[in-house]
């Protein structure tokens, strides 16, 4: 063990000497490793940051949550002309599933409606995202209120003029968001009572932030827009009970919908069952492919860096030929000489990798400061990966020079060095 520690110490000293004695040559040689590590880790950090941001935007919904609609959230073999003929899911289908779908924690109905202005007194908030929902939505999504409550089933069914307001809207219309509670605001030309204020959520990459939204009972919007409006894209959102057999549950849901719509056995489903788990799997697949492509592209930079390390090591072997001959004449074994140069190559590569990581870290800080809506992260995993790749490049690049050094004849080495 002591001999290996001594080899590492000597190799480190030789590597530092190579850096200090031949600054320009070493800098140019290590530049490839630095750029390669910077490229790989920067791309991995960017993809990880994107994945975290998207999944963070979905984190309020359980991955088992199901969205039943006439649209597919992913690729499908059904041609577009046929999908366009699919009927929208209806409020009656929602009521049917609510009564007849076992092992279900909550079911709600929602439609998409255009943004509208909302006003209080002399103040007005423009382009407010309106979210018509059933009362069960509060059980499906992890909503947090700073004051008040969500509307109940009675209010949702009767279409009571009540609403739950996002933090940003409350802040724009009232000096203090919490003071909005029980106030009457105007929406759709009628008065609505504010019964709840949502906690501040912040910006979101995946869809609009709830800070700029208001939630109203879905039957209010149904009375305004009607049930035959293809532009409202109705959806039934379902949350199964925990520990339910997912495949069996989806099969049961499919059977219930086919039965209700009277589809014959040979007819295909005219609806889509979209599960968030499938969407997150799709995100994982896309980010995995991005990582692979970027690794291949960045690998060319590392290839250049590897040649640079090999160049340093061949020059180092040539400059220290006399020293190698003396070491071998004093009893140093080939293994000792081999490890000495291998460690030196690895140390040089790691130094280049560390410089690349520093640049990545500084880039993430600058990029995060420049963009308010997105945070770049450099994970410990990616940092360790960068150092590991650097070490591997150094090991591969140093093998041939180290072998050539270990096989030198001591007498010839001393004579050549002289």
TrEMBL record:
PANTHER family: ABC TRANSPORTER PERMEASE YTRF (PTHR30572:SF4), MEMBRANE COMPONENT OF TRANSPORTER-RELATED (PTHR30572). Residues 26-255 form the MacB-like periplasmic core domain. It is a multi-pass membrane protein. InterPro entries: ABC3_permease_C, MacB_PCD, Macrolide_Exporter_MacB. Keywords: Cell membrane, Membrane, Transmembrane, Transmembrane helix. Pfam families: FtsX, MacB_PCD. Its main location: membrane. Residues 296-410 form the ABC3 transporter permease C-terminal domain. Belongs to the ABC-4 integral membrane protein family. It is found in: Cell membrane. This is ABC transporter permease.
């Amino acid at each position: 063990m002591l001999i290996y520690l001594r080899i590492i110490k000597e190799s480190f000293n030789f590597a530092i000497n190579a850096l200090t004695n031949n600054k320009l040559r070493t800098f140019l040689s290590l530049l490839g490793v630095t750029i390669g590590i910077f490229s790989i880790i920067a791309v991995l950090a960017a993809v990880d940051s994107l994945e975290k941001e998207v999944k963070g935007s979905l984190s309020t919904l359980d991955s088992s949550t199901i969205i039943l609609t006439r649209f597919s959230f992913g690729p499908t073999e059904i041609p577009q002309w046929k999908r366009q003929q699919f009927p929208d899911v209806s409020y009656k289908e929602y009521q049917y599933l609510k009564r007849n779908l076992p092992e279900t924690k909550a079911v709600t109905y929602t439609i998409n409606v255009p943004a509208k202005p909302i006003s209080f007194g002399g103040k007005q908030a423009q382009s407010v995202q309106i979210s018509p929902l059933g009362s069960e939505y509060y059980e499906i999504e992890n909503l947090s209120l700073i004051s008040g409550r969500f509307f109940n089933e009675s209010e949702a069914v009767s279409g009571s003029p009540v609403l739950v307001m996002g933090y940003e809207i409350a802040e724009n219309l009232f000096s203090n968001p919490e003071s909005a509670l029980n106030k009457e605001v105007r929406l759709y030309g009628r008065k609505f009572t504010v019964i709840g204020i949502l906690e501040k959520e912040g910006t979101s990459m995946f869809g609009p932030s709830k800070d700029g939204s208001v939630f109203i009972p879905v039957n209010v919007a149904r009375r305004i827009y009607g049930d035959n409006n293809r532009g409202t894209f109705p959806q039934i959102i379902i949350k199964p009970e925990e520990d339910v057999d997912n495949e069996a549950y989806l099969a049961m849901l499919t059977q219930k919908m086919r039965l209700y719509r009277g589809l014959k056995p040979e007819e295909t489903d005219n609806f889509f069952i979209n599960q968030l788990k499938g969407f997150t799997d799709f995100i994982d697949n896309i980010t995995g492919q991005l990582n692979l492509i970027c690794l291949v592209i960045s690998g060319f930079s590392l290839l250049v860096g590897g040649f640079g390390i090999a160049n340093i090591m061949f020059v180092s072997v040539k400059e220290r030929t006399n020293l190698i001959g003396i070491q071998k004449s004093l009893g140093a074994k080939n293994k000792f000489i081999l490890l000495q140069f291998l460690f030196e190559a690895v140390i040089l590569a790691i130094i280049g990798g560390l410089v690349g990581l520093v640049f990545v870290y500084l880039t993430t800080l600058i990029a995060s400061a420049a963009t308010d809506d997105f945070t770049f992260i450099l994970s410990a995993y990616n940092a360790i990966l960068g150092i590991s790749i650097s070490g591997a490049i150094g090991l591969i690049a140093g093998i041939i020079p180290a072998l050539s050094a270990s096989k030198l004849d001591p007498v010839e080495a001393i004579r050549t060095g002289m």
